[in-house]
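Training component of the fellowship. As part of building independent skills, the fellow (R.M.) carried out the full modelling exercise for a liganded target. The chosen ligand was manganese (II) ion. The inputs are recorded below so that the supervisory panel can assess the work.
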Amino acid sequence: MKLNKSQIQDQNTKSLNSIEEHFNFTANILDKKGIDVNAVIKKLQNLKVAIPSWALGAGGTRFGRFSFFGEPTNLEQKIEDIGVLNALTHTAGAVSLHIPWDIPEDYNGIKALANSLNITFDAVNSNTFQDQKNAKHSYKFGSLSNNSKDIRQQAIQHNIDVINIGEKLGSKSLTVWLADGSSFPGQNNFQTALINTENSLKEIYSNLPKNWTMLIEYKPFEPNFYSTVIQDWGTSFMLANACGDKAYSLVDLGHHLPNCNIEQIVSTLMYKGKLGGFHFNDSKYGDDDLTVGSIKPYTLFLIFNELVYGMKNNTQNPDLAWMIDASHNLKDPLEDLLQSLEAIQEAYAKALLINQTELKNAQLNNDIVKCQEILQDAYRTDVRSLVAKARINLDRAINPIETYRALKVRNELIKERGKNSIATGL
Ligand code: LRH
Ligand code: MN
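Fellow's submitted model of the complex:
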């Protein structure tokens, strides 16, 4: 299914006047505060968030999976679905593949399709947390950290194969997330597991093409429930430093213990020039992989405040990889992703309204009340018309969800793919 500009513009006509009115009102207020609204819109238009290839079907848990009909059954259909998201938002111009769930059969065909939909290939993800059919060794007791050299070698080779697949597609980074760990005290020798992991990552790193980066994703628990080898940002940071300049930490918002100050982790990694990117999602308890901004939107705003500060002051930190990593157990996966993209754009827009100089002065004067007033004035600003304006100027949808529904996209997908199509992934 492909959406074209005129279909979207037709739907936009319904709310064009009210959004223009809302925009002029908001832009006028911001202009009086000395905020360059056009600069904010430009930054919103330049934000490109990679869509996870493993989250275009209905996700599930060990307790069950409820299909969503019309799911994509191959990479071509997944790229088409991302094309629909990008036609509506302009923010979804990249895909992050998970190997082997999404190994392309026809590289030229898939590149041509992606190119025709203005979609680029962001980080490729390796998978040594599941055993592949006719694999020689099992990762049951770990992969890059495994006590067995042969099993570590198999996992290292898989990561090298993933790099080769990514190279053929034009990707420039490898994401490594390890389920490796233990579920019972005494099961692992922590130091041996960490040393094995460090040496394995160094071997993968030595196979990175010149202009590639390696993103090391950390997670405190699940699927292991006593220890995880790369459990927190400190371990990821240490391993990235041990590997070299092209290795960075990847922050998955759901990979933090309750009440962890994620925005402080973001600022520390940016200060050290080791923040490689994000897996955006939201959570209430564990790695819930819920819609971005659906549970803790203020935390997302505070994270973007650190990102805006860091992108200005930490030139030692590379351009970030912006990616969503969510699992859609209840909502239409495409609507869920549209809501996540909206939440990311809104948090970024609100953070761009913060007068960082004024905030810095208030901080230096220990004027805590003033600091909070500055932050919350930005957070309480309704930026929806700015985000919509950024899309209108690019012939995208004023209201992506409404347009998606008005154009009956899901019905069309069910007509094309039937009710029993199942997508690979989580
Ligand atoms: C692990 C994780 C990782 C992916 C997987 C799909 O929880 O966040 O990024 O490999 O989800
Ligand atoms: Mn993730």
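The panel noted the following from the submitted structure. DSSP finds 16 helices and 13 strands in the chain. The first strand starts at residue 50 and ends at 52.
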